[in-house]
């Protein structure tokens, strides 16, 4: 099945790409979650809009990505959340929480979809997350989760 990606999907492509995937993958995963739309002749106009929007948001060059990486790695990110007595959180820390904490700490504005958390953060303490700035540049960032 031919689809148009509306968001970046790792291993598949970026927003605006027209890709061919298995029917079940598109019908059961990509389309319901809003990661893609079905390809049609009229949908080709949407591709240009998606690409223009992506071009505005994305970091254009590797040099610019390395500059943002330097800014990110220089920021000390601390996130205050509610936790129990044993240090377990009520819920978990999301990518959106981390992106807003980076902005609040004086760092650059980061899209929450670019933040990659290895395993869910459900305890207090120091955790490592990565931010994919460009296809070739990944910034590793330490996040300190403290009780509120």
Automatic annotation (TrEMBL):
InterPro entries: Ribosomal_bL9, Ribosomal_bL9/RNase_H1_N, Ribosomal_bL9_bac/chp, Ribosomal_bL9_C, Ribosomal_bL9_C_sf, Ribosomal_bL9_N, Ribosomal_bL9_N_sf
Any single GO CC term annotated in Swiss-Prot or TrEMBL for this entry: ribosome
Ribosomal protein L9 domain span: 13-40
Superkingdom in the source lineage: Bacteria
Keywords: Ribonucleoprotein, Ribosomal protein, RNA-binding, rRNA-binding
Pfam families named among the record's database cross-references: Ribosomal_L9_C, Ribosomal_L9_N
HAMAP family in the cross-refs: Ribosomal_bL9
Family named by the database record: Belongs to the bacterial ribosomal protein bL9 family.
Function: Binds to the 23S rRNA.
Protein name: Large ribosomal subunit protein bL9
Annotated organism of origin: Streptomyces ochraceiscleroticus
Gene this chain is encoded by: rplI
């Amino acid at each position: 099945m031919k689809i148009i990606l509306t968001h970046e999907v790792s291993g598949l492509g970026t927003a605006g790409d027209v890709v061919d995937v298995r029917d079940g993958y598109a019908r059961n995963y990509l389309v319901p979650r809003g990661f893609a739309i079905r390809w049609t002749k009229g949908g080709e106009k949407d591709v240009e809009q998606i690409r223009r929007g992506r071009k505005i948001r994305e970091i254009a060059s590797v040099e610019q990505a390395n500059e943002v990486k330097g800014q990110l790695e220089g920021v000390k990110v601390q996130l205050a959340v509610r936790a129990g007595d044993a240090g377990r959180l009520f819920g978990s820390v999301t990518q959106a929480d981390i992106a807003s904490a980076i902005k609040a700490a004086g760092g650059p504005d980061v899209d929450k979809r670019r933040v990659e958390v290895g395993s869910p953060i459900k305890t207090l303490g120091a955790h490592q997350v990565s931010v994919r700035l460009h296809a070739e540049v990944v910034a590793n960032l330490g996040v300190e989760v403290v009780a509120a």
